[in-house]
Design brief:
- The complex is a heterodimer.
- In chain A, the strands form 4 sheets. Chain A has a 5-stranded antiparallel beta sheet. Chain A has a 4-stranded antiparallel beta sheet with strand order 11-12-13-14, with helices on both faces.
- Chain A is globular, with a radius of gyration of 19 Å.
- Helix content of chain A is 35%, strand content 25%.
- The longest helix of chain A is centred in the last third of the chain and has 19 residues.
- Chain A is built from 12 helices and 14 strands.
- In chain A, helix 5 packs antiparallel against helix 8 and helix 11 runs antiparallel to helix 12.
- Chain A has 3 domains: 47 residues, 2-Layer Sandwich (Uridine Diphospho-n-acetylenolpyruvylglucosamine Reductase, domain 2), CATH 3.30.43; 110 residues, Uridine Diphospho-n-acetylenolpyruvylglucosamine Reductase, domain 3, CATH 3.30.465.10; 104 residues, 2-Layer Sandwich (Enolase-like, domain 1).
- By secondary structure, chain B is of the alpha+beta class.
- Chain B has 2 domains: 76 residues, Roll (Ubiquitin-like (UB roll)), CATH 3.10.20.30; 72 residues, DNA polymerase, domain 1 (Orthogonal Bundle).
- Chain B is built from 6 helices and 6 strands, in the order E-E-E-H-E-E-E-H-H-H-H-H.
- Chain B has a 5-stranded mixed beta sheet with strand order 3-2-6-4-5, with helices on both faces.
- In chain B, a hairpin with a 2-residue loop joins strand 2 and strand 3.
- In chain B, helix 3 crosses helix 6.
- The mean pLDDT of chain B is 94.
- Classes of the chains: A alpha+beta, B alpha+beta.
- Chains A and B meet through strand 1, helix 2 and helix 6 of A and strand 1, strand 5, helix 4 and helix 5 of B.
- Strand 1 of chain A pairs antiparallel with strand 1 of chain B, so a sheet runs across the interface.
Chain lengths: 282, 164
């Protein structure tokens, strides 16, 4: 007797009904780059798969004050989008370093977030951009900031009956100064040792609304908020950059693992923040 | 709402031929191709999407068969290296890989050819750096990348000559 089920709903309502019905038994399948790898490695053995690749969540929309990216939009879709390239080049740059061509064709931005990896490269960029997520279930929709979404490695605030519907990027970041840098063990198809993204407004050398985000250096992708606030309204010069970079390196909580050591991650975080700020304010 | 029990039937077109096959909930496209349909050019290397040995084109898109759930492929079209060759004539990429000695143990080569085809379809005149990026998700453990890159570049030049 086979008690396994596969669904490929064709709209969002149907998807939410299925999630409400199956709850924790169900796993949401999008691009499969994370979930299918886990299933193959026998880390997961789902009884119910809900495939959301055909439920209408692949889009990049301009909604006046915000850009909205549907959860199943692939990294390749983002890279090929002139809207993304023009309005949020930081995201385009971050995405270009994710995986390899085939992985970018398959992997989705919603999946990359939902899996809750501390090393999610899209999360680092979206944190710096002040993005939030629209979460939907049968009973409600709620908007959660990217900085409140992640709880721990592999854990997010997403409930078993909930789905990421879309990513919302405020247009206040359009025209902002930005920088992104990823360090991996090698150039191609590499999980980040450290990733850093900075987004801010600069009038001359004065800085406003800076957001410094770091990935793979804490249990979740993080905003270095104290370091960011040191920049507010200031004229950004070498001494301040040194101070901000040091502060950022103190705000993180890296670990030793197969890819790197905590010591190295802290050092590199400081260096990357420094380099990005120098690049932005040179 | 269509409910599909595992051990469901899916329909696939592979290299121009139509197939119907039974799959389970956790079946991957790679298992279906190799074990059900006997199409063995896509290889199982890492089985987690990292090595690229299982690369195929799914509805024209360059993907990893090992992490593609088979149930999501119902009604779709798959091209493997077997499908690139015309009757009596192998594909220019295959021919050039042979001529330039790009294949050592051969395990990664079907994936490399698919990656090369996808790259040339999108960018007929890639630089060496662009070729390297194009095959950056395909690992050759013999480490024979030099001749693989040479071959893809050589094919792009041949295509140029044909046009001009």
């Amino acid at each position: 007797m086979i008690d396994e089920k596969f669904f490929s709903p064709h709209d969002l309502g149907e998807t939410c009904d299925l999630l409400a019905l199956y709850g924790e038994k169900a796993h949401v399948l999008a691009g499969g780059t994370g979930l299918m790898a886990m299933i193959n490695k026998k880390q997961l053995s789902p009884k119910v798969l809900i495939y959301i690749g055909e439920c209408g969540l692949t889009y990049i929309n301009d909604n006046g004050d915000t850009l909205r990216i549907g959860a199943t939009t692939s990294f390749t879709d983002l890279l090929h989008s002139s809207r993304i390239k023009e309005k949020v080049p930081l995201l385009a740059e971050a995405v270009s370093h994710i995986g390899s061509p085939a992985i970018r064709n398959m992997g989705t931005v919603g999946g990359n977030l939902a899996i809750g990896s501390p090393a999610s490269d899209s999360a680092t960029a979206l944190l710096a951009l002040g993005a939030s997520l629209n979460l939907i279930s049968k009973t409600e929709t709620r908007i959660v900031g990217c900085d409140d979404f992640f709880i721990a490695p592999g854990q997010t605030v997403l409930r078993p009956d909930e789905l990421i519907q879309e990513i919302i990027i405020p247009k206040t970041t359009i025209g902002a100064k930005w920088g992104y840098r990823k360090l991996g063990r090698r150039k191609g198809q590499s999980i980040s040792v450290v990733s850093a993204a900075i987004c801010c407004h600069a009038v001359g050398t004065k800085c406003n609304g800076a957001r410094i985000a770091l990935g793979a250096v804490a249990p979740t992708p993080v905003l270095a908020s104290e370091a960011s606030s040191l920049l507010e309204g200031e004229s950004v010069e070498k001494d301040l950059i040194d101070k901000v970079a040091k502060k950022a390196a103190h705000e993180i909580d890296p670990i030793d693992d197969v890819r790197s050591s905590a010591w190295y991650r802290r050092r590199v975080s400081e260096v990357l923040v420094k380099r990005l700020l120098l690049q932005i304010f040179s | 709402m269509k409910e599909v029990l595992s051990l469901a039937m899916i329909e696939l077109k592979v290299n121009g031929l139509a197939y119907k096959t039974e799959v389970r909930l956790k079946s991957t496209l790679l298992e279906v191709l190799r074990e059900r349909l006997g199409i063995t050019s896509p290889k199982m290397g890492c089985n987690e999407g990292d090595c690229g040995a299982c690369s195929v084109l799914l509805n024209g898109v360059f993907v990893r068969a090992c992490i593609t759930n088979a149930l999501t492929c119902n009604g779709k079209e798959v091209i493997t290296v077997e499908g690139l060759a015309q009757p009596g004539e192998i594909h220019p990429l295959q021919k050039t890989f042979v001529e330039l000695g790009a294949s050592q143990c051969g395990f990664c080569i079907p994936g490399m050819i698919i990656a090369g085809k996808d790259l040339l379809d999108q960018n007929p005149n890639p630089s060496r750096e662009e070729v390297k990026r194009g095959i950056s998700g395909n690992l050759c453990r013999c480490t024979g990348y030099q001749k693989i890159v040479d071959s893809i570049i050589a094919v792009s030049r041949q295509m140029d000559e044909k046009i001009s």
